[in-house]
Give the backbone structure.
Amino acid sequence: TTVARALVERFQGPTAYFHFTPPIGHALDTRPPDDEVHFPRRTEPRGSYVLGCLRLGRSVVRAWIGHACRVRPALDKGTLVVGDRWLYGYVGDPLPLRFFGPRRLGELALRMLPAPDLVVVLWSDARRVYERKQEMSLAEIERGLESWAELPVARKRLFDASEPAALIAQRILEGLGQ
């Protein structure tokens, strides 16, 4: 979200933002929230396989509707649309989404979604992340970093999260040809 804020601030034009899935009932935000929203992290990898798969299906449908109603019209007007996380968490970090289905199902869902112009994955040393997120074990952070880095999506670029957000944002804009 910090990089998304820097990206919106650096872009010389209209911007829009959404977290996870684009909204259906209201317009896209013009920028990320000023404060980080922290959700309690699930630490137990247990839950319903069926409900997790149903959540994934519902998210895919919501993503398509939000894309058709909000994102596509914004893109057609030349707006830079920043999607924070999108549905990549179903593959990169499924536990907080309560998805206990097979990774391949999450990957299939990602292939069914509209492809963005650029997928940004922030990378950092696991120990550095652990200093900020001690609610996760070091092993869990290492697995998560690997999983995010291996997202099976086109137009993916890894960026070093230890660099300043403004520098990462500038490199993202360069990657978009801006």
About this structure: The beta strands are 15-19, 80-84, 119-123, 156-160. The chain is about 45% helix and 10% strand.
